[in-house]
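testing teh design pipeline on a random one, pls ignore if ur not involved
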């Protein structure tokens, strides 16, 4: 692997030490290239050519905005390899016990405010636009993977129809505005702390190639309702209000929160299926460790949504929700 990589990277890095960096659920490979004075990140997308182009496309767009993105030093379009700025090892999910949670979230939420206020809907960028078909496809992962995993049988036709009917009515009852730039995976495992920088620029942002146009609360609940780690959510209400007050909102705070809770519930629903799917696809059973955290996020969101029919539905789907 190392010798093959060295053949494809610029000659200036061929004498650098090579350290493979573990990344989850991706065919892209990441390496840290370093000597005694300097280090860079090599992103090898030779098995994910579309993601390589998407990364460059979104990076070009976001580089005009005042947030911390890794600089692209070199690129090799023939091999789909990038040499990137090394943001270091202070990934948010790895340093929660060493740094103030509120300070970390503060830099991240302020970054989201900048993303919201300094971007405008631009169809020419080629990003997908969220819609009901996408929504339906995502929540379908729940009964495709999680329900059979939990109950050891497939969901009944009647219960599946009730599931879709409940969610479709909920979706159609809300006046969505799917024209905001969304990172999509704005989770704490994709944010890196940069202590030498100021204010929101302390939050380094990576893994943005799956961006789309959607509701601007999406990245906020991806951050505050992270499904991989259950950190204290005592600051959630503060940051929800902070984001609302400082971003371009065209609805009331109650309408904003309803979208936040609804889309977060649907996302947690999908993720229950996604963890099972990934554990099977990659034969990595540790993905199943995220199920309990995801259920906590989901149950709390359903309570906050204040939708009786949704609560009754999930009491049938997940018995412990009773």
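output:
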């Amino acid at each position: 692997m190392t010798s093959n990589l060295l053949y494809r990277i610029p000659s200036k890095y061929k004498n650098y030490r090579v350290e493979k960096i573990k990344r989850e659920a991706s065919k892209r490979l990441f390496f840290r290239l370093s000597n005694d004075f300097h280090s860079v990140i090599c992103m090898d997308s030779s098995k994910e050519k579309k993601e390589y182009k998407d990364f460059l496309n979104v990076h070009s767009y976001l580089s005009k905005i005042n947030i911390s993105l890794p600089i692209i030093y070199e690129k090799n379009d023939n091999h789909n390899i990038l040499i990137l700025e090394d943001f270091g090892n202070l990934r948010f999910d790895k340093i929660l016990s060493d740094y103030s949670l509120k300070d970390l979230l503060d830099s991240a939420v302020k970054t989201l405010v900048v993303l919201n206020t300094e971007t405008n809907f631009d169809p020419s960028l080629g990003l997908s636009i969220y819609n009901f078909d996408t929504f339906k496809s995502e929540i379908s992962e729940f009964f495709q993977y999680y329900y059979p995993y939990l109950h050891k049988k497939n969901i009944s036709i009647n219960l599946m129809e009730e599931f879709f009917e409940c969610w479709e009515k909920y979706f159609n009852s809300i006046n969505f505005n799917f024209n905001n730039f969304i990172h999509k995976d704005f989770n704490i495992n994709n944010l890196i702390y940069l202590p030498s920088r100021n204010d929101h620029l302390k939050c380094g942002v990576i893994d943005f190639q799956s961006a789309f146009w959607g509701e601007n609360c999406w990245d906020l609940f991806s951050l505050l309702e992270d499904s991989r780690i259950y950190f204290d959510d005592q600051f959630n209400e503060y940051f929800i209000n902070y984001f609302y007050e400082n971003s371009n909102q065209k609805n009331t705070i109650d309408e904003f929160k309803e979208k936040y809770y609804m889309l977060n519930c649907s996302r947690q629903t999908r993720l229950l299926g996604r963890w099972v799917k990934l554990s099977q696809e990659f034969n990595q059973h540790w993905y199943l460790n995220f199920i309990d955290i995801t259920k906590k996020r989901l149950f709390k969101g359903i309570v906050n949504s204040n939708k009786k029919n949704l609560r009754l539905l999930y009491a049938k789907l997940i018995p412990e929700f009773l």
